[in-house]
Design goal:
The chain has helices at about 1-30, 35-40, 60-80, 95-105, 110-115, 120-130, 135-145, 160-175, 195-200, 265-270, 285, 300, 340-350, 380-385, 425-435, 440-445, 445-455, 485-490, 510, 530-545; strands at about 90, 150-155, 180-190, 195, 205-215, 225-230, 240-245, 250-255, 260-265, 275-285, 315-320, 330-335, 390-400, 410-420, 460, 470-475, 480. The longest helix is centred in the first third of the chain and has 29 residues, at about 1-30. The model has no long low-confidence stretch (mean pLDDT about 90). It is α+β, with helices and mostly antiparallel strands.
Length: about 550
């Protein structure tokens, strides 16, 4: 009985709190308290607050309430200090979250499905979907006491908002910070687009993948192999080079009838439980230029003519600063199109650049037993196919990036993308960060400060459909024109110079009968009076030298 009484008292207390909150909300509304706070004198000037808007195609949750509590408390506090804080509400109506929601609704599974459905119709559905839960969001905003100007929100699909994004990109270009490059991006094969480093940080997961050590046969040397390793076996068919550290110590070991080359510091782990003897000591620089036999012929078989001259540089050992002896074998397998360091090395050494994997993460035509297979699902099959070329493998747990919206494992994938050169702003960003009063304080020098110190150029382009179009036009010789406003766009738009006039033809049978219908069996013919009216109109237009285009709208 005592427990029951305690529960009743607790419920009564909760009800009293809720009732008191609702009374306060009612008082604020009836007395326009938010409006008055916004209009009061502000001797300390403006305090800038930007509302990062929600997407109303999903319901609000507890995590939204936590964030909005801080968004509300700080502007109130600054208002009481004598600042004016503009609190403009907004709606985020663009991007992958909206597109994926509509894809699920329409049971579409890929970009190809969207194109077959029709991009214009798909975008129309996206525009409709973003208001699905707007009433819940507005009630939620009011109920938690979050003061926002909801009467005049900004909406990201409206031309005025998109024009403001164009203006920012134009200013970025004016500062020579906008550029297009072909490099490794974090690619989602399901969504068919690259993701920024910010988006990447939201999707890391612990996964178990196969780490494999592979024997690469040294050319013209009997039974001699370079031991290289990778945690992404699916990239092995795209191998074009091996990388070593120039100053790293390597050993040639004799194990059975094979000579194996491996970094000295990695011998204990690589040769665990295997018998061997030392044959030769080497420095990494001694291995540079050594040629080896390709694991697979697929790159050579599918390479376009324009790339074939680069084969002379492939299947050799190169030195690279990114090679370490912290793990693996001290020799790194390099697939130019599927790794950031690999791509830089490939560019420097003029290695072939050709995809054997398409945009949806499947092996292309001409890749033998792999053709059409999803890359990450092919790891075990590749290991099995390599047979005795596999020196060892073990399943390891490691952190791997996934798409923050669809949970698909991302690929490091070479693509064209537009970038903002944030690296040029690094020093300025770090300096500005030092002036910010971070709460909690350790964020300043910790997670955020470290991120700024290693800031990457920002990939801003997405290869999707429902978003602000990039205002960049590029001609055949690579010259760019960046448009900063709609008015500026009009200056580049060719117009015919024609003027068009719309008019009715004249009285028809359905006008007399007071019938409004598009059915073919209803009367639509001109009456005698209508024919006379139409004739007079034609005469007037001809006298003014206006060409006629007759369109019948039934």
């Amino acid at each position: 009985m005592e427990d029951k009484n305690s529960e009743n008292k607790e419920n009564i207390a909760k009800n009293e709190i809720a009732q008191r909150e609702e009374e306060i909300l009612k008082f604020w509304e009836e007395n326009q308290i938010f409006k008055k706070s916004d209009e009061k004198d502000a001797p300390n000037g403006e305090y800038i607050f930007y509302e990062g808007p929600p997407t109303a195609n999903g319901k609000p949750g507890m995590h939204h309430m936590e964030a909005r509590a801080f968004k509300d408390a700080i502007p109130r506090y600054k208002t009481m200090q004598g600042f004016h804080v503009r609190r403009k509400a907004g709606w985020d109506t663009h991007g992958l979250p909206v597109e994926i929601g509509v894809e699920k609704e329409l049971e579409l599974r890929s970009k190809k499905d969207i194109e077959e459905y029709g991009i214009a119709e798909f975008n129309k559905k996206c525009k409709e979907s973003v208001w699905k839960y707007v009433d819940l969001w507005e009630k939620f905003t009011d109920r938690i006491g979050f003061w926002l100007d909801k009467e005049d929100p900004y909406i990201t699909y409206e031309p005025e908002y998109m024009e403001s994004v164009w203006n920012v990109i134009k200013k970025v270009d004016d500062q020579k910070l906008l550029y297009k490059d072909y490099r490794i991006v974090n690619w989602c094969p399901r969504c068919g687009t690259g993701l920024s480093s910010h988006e990447l940080a939201q999707g890391y997961k612990d996964v178990h993948d196969m780490s494999v050590t592979v024997k690469f046969k040294v050319k013209d040397k009997e039974n001699t192999y370079l031991l290289a390793w990778t945690t992404t076996p699916w990239t092995l068919p795209g191998n074009v080079a091996l990388a070593v550290g120039e100053k790293i110590n390597y050993k040639t070991l004799k194990s059975g009838d094979e000579n194996l080359i491996v970094a000295e510091d990695r011998i204990a782990d690589v040769m665990k439980d295997k018998e061997y003897e030392m044959v030769e000591e080497l420095l990494g620089k001694d291995l540079v230029g050594v040629e080896y036999e390709p694991l697979y012929p697929y790159l050579k078989d599918t390479l376009p003519e324009s790339q074939k001259d680069k084969l002379k540089n492939a299947y050799k050992v190169y030195s690279a600063d990114f090679v370490t002896t912290q793990d693996g074998t001290g020799i790194v397998h390099t697939a130019v199109m599927y790794g950031a360091d690999d791509f830089i090395l490939g560019t420097e050494k003029d290695l072939p650049k050709h995809h054997i994997v398409n945009e949806d993460g499947r092996f292309i035509q001409g890749t033998g037993f792999l053709e059409g297979k999803k890359v990450r699902g092919a790891n075990d099959e590749i290991i099995e196919n390599l047979g005795d070329k596999v020196f060892g493998n073990v399943r390891v747990k490691h952190t791997y990036p996934h798409c923050w919206r669809c949970n698909t494992a991302l690929l490091y994938y070479a693509r064209d993308s537009w970038y903002i050169r944030m690296s040029d702003l690094r020093d300025k960003l770090v300096k500005e960060n030092s002036t910010i009063n971070w709460q909690p304080e350790h964020i300043k020098e910790g997670r955020f400060g470290q991120w700024l110190e290693d800031v990457k150029d920002w990939a801003i382009s997405r290869e999707r459909y429902w978003a602000t179009p990039l205002p960049v036009w590029q001609n055949e010789i690579g010259e760019n024109t960046v448009i900063g406003s709609i008015d500026e766009l009009k200056k580049y738009t060719k117009r015919s110079g024609n003027k068009y006039f719309v008019m009715r033809h004249g009285e028809a049978d359905h006008n007399v009968a007071s019938v409004v219908s598009s059915k073919a069996d209803n009367p639509h013919h001109l009456t005698d009076k209508g024919k006379e009216e139409a004739g007079e109109a034609v005469g007037k237009l001809k006298s003014k030298k206006i060409d006629l285009i007759m369109i019948s709208l039934l």
